[in-house]
């Protein structure tokens, strides 16, 4: 019963959490100087927000495993790419120069 | 796998214990997921172009986000996350056999969708006043291309929410049969997910 009461609020909790993370992101945008550490934190926040929306709003945590796999992969691959392209920007530029 | 009240709580609603449509199945229908993956592929291509452009024009991509209206981007993120929350609530309501409540949640979601569109149009006007246009530099070209494309998605996804409201009103979506509403909800969440990546790329990261 206690678990049910908690899970009844899980959706509301997810919403509050997402709003807080978004506010923190906005604060970073306004105040923080760019650095790899900031990029890493933002990438983690993207991955976490995506996972939270997919699991609790989209209900993929119980759904078809193939869909789960591709959707979750998307939110692992792109945050990782964001970080890697910051880390290896010069290499990427030389690789993509025609 | 045994489904029990304690280990299966869809949408955070503890009272809904047995919901066959998403448990180990495709939420909504196959067609909507073909659409969702096609849309996500399209956004993935935008992101790849962004990465390459940023590598070639680091100065423009460093200065660009500082000139944009972070408040507008943040408010838009709030609007989309909140609308997703309302859509999830609407789905929970129909599962609890409360179509009236479901309609109310969907209207709130539509309001958030409209709010997003209004903020975005205002932001574009603000940009033009600051001298930020599509051809100002490569960063702003990316910014307009990505955000306008996303705006279009919010527009027609809001239309699909209106369709869902109509279907609920005429009694076509019920506790027993609401796969269409689940499909529309999944599409709406996908639009939100795309913005979860776009917002930090354009407004936060430098």
TrEMBL record, chain A:
It holds the Pfam family COX4_pro. It is found in: Cell membrane. One of its GO terms (cellular component) is plasma membrane. It comes from the Bacteria. It is a multi-pass membrane protein. Keywords: Cell membrane, Membrane, Transmembrane, Transmembrane helix. InterPro entries: Cyt_c_oxidase_su4_prok. The chain crosses the membrane at residues 15-48. Coiled coil: none annotated. This is Cytochrome C oxidase subunit IV. It comes from Colwellia psychrerythraea.
TrEMBL record, chain B:
InterPro entries: Cyt_c/ubiquinol_Oxase_su3, Cyt_c_oxidase-like_su3, Cyt_c_oxidase_su3-like_sf, Cyt_c_oxidase_su3_a-hlx. CDD domains: NorE_like. Keywords: Membrane, Transmembrane, Transmembrane helix. Residues 31-206 form the Heme-copper oxidase subunit III family profile domain. GO terms for molecular function: cytochrome-c oxidase activity. The chain crosses the membrane at residues 31-53, 73-93, 105-122, 142-165, 186-205. The keyword Glycosyltransferase does not apply. It is found in: Cell membrane; Membrane. It comes from the Bacteria. PROSITE patterns: COX3. One of its GO terms (cellular component) is plasma membrane. It holds the Pfam family COX3. Coiled coil: none annotated. GO terms for biological process: aerobic electron transport chain. It is a multi-pass membrane protein. Belongs to the cytochrome c oxidase subunit 3 family. This is Cytochrome c oxidase subunit III. It comes from Colwellia psychrerythraea (Vibrio psychroerythus).
